[in-house]
Amino acid sequence: MSCFQGTAQFMAIAILLRCLKAPGVENVIHSLHHDLEAIIWVALYSILMHEIIEERGAATFSAGCNKDDDKFHLFRDSFSHTSYKEIEKARKYCMTSSELLVVMIKAPALQKLVSTLMRLVCKQNNSWSAPIYITHQSLRAAFDDACKGL
Q1: Residue 3: inside a domain, yes or no?
Q2: Are 133 and 96 in contact (CB under 8 A)?
Q3: Signal peptide location in the record (predicted)?
Q4: Cβ(138)–Cβ(120) below 8 Å
Q5: End-to-end Cα, the chain, rounded Å
Q6: Domain count, the chain
Q7: How far apart are CA 112 and CA 100, in angstroms?
Q8: Helix axis angle, 84-96 relative to 108-124, nearest 10°?
Q9: CB burial class (10 A; 0-12, 13-18, 19+) of residue 81?
Q10: What is the pLDDT of residue 145?
Q11: Residue 131 belongs to a domain
Q12: Is residue 96 part of a domain?
């Protein structure tokens, strides 16, 4: 099977690896937990986009993020690439730098949500033990828990 269809910037990591024909993922079958991970990447994109627009204004953002702006480099690096390899590399960096994402966000409830969502993604994609797949229940619990702080 060739690569799956979808918006690469929001694909689950295992699906990106399959598209890259990386060793060990030849037998990856597109499953529900991959779609749930994609929802997390869409949510992260939306939350970070909101923070950038809140801080800079929509007009400033539409002109593009300043390449020298360290505060939002992770956003730009995570969601501006178009090749599977660059996106996969950005995902791994994003997973190891999730504390940088949290600091970018002002609202404590959203900070908690992003932190929890990134933990779910890390557990699903860890390479040192059996993955813990994202479920409807774990995703809903993350949103419910974050909403308690509102």
Answers
A1: no
A2: no
A3: 1-22
A4: yes
A5: 45
A6: 1
A7: 13
A8: 120
A9: middle
A10: 95
A11: yes
A12: yes
Place of tokens 């404590």: 108
Dihedral angle computed from the Cα positions of residues 15, 92, 37 and 11, in that order, rounded to the nearest 10 degrees: -40
Residue numbers of the domain that contains 115:
8-148
- Residue 13 · residue 125 · CB < 8 Å: yes
pLDDT in tens, 38-87: 999 999 999 988 887 787 776 555 555 555 555 677 777 778 888 888 98
1 inside domain: no
